[in-house]
Design a protein that fits this description.
The chain contains 7 helices and 10 strands. The protein is α+β, with helices and mostly antiparallel strands. The chain has a domain of 169 residues. A hairpin with a 3-residue loop joins β7 and β8.
Length: 243
Amino acid sequence: MAYNASSTIAALKTVTSELLSLPSGLLSEADQKYFEGLQRRIPPLPFSAFNGKPTIAPAVVWSRVNNVESSQLYPVYPWGLYGVGRPGLDTARNTYWNDSFALKFRSHVGWKQDNIFAARLGLTQEAKRLNSLKLKNSDRRFPTFWGPGFDWVPDHNWGGSGMIGLQEMLMQTVDNRIYLFPAWPKEWDVHFKLHAPQQTTVEATLKNGKIVSLQVLPVERKKILLYNLSKFPQNALNQNNIK
């Protein structure tokens, strides 16, 4: 019972755009024309304001809130219209910090995605806090038997959403760019290997706040890797490991 819900609009924008960006020949001429027409008909995202700051609204108008979901942040995740390296980051951050429903519903419990929102928005300490809560050991015999949250025990939605949030803290892909450590606390040592689009793998080691090894395959993809060198400098003693 919502008019022009931001979650639906964001989904339509992202899916339609991705379909239209497929290589030539994968869509029929009729489908191409249909999706071009659909793209023109998708309404703009609704916006609001809290504390004098622009925010993404859940919808233009709505009858009631049926659940405990911060749907106004779904344009951040999963639909990727906002986030690190994308336009409107301040508006999305304003929504995270100021929207009354986003604040009311914030939690690490169950399938809640606030940890992912925080990582996607580059909110390092918030992502650290929420992922630490979400992925901590349960109080049962088996550490990963989380819950109950909104469902049963074991509730592996905790682990699934936690793993996504952890990966988003380490690496994010935006268009043809790869962002390294976009929401990672420099005091956390880590070694990881993750897959990125175009058959790319990124493997890195961070120790004492410095990148001591970095390998991108294929090597030509390293030129599209972006990270904050002032926050995560390369260790001069380990330059041979930077490939």
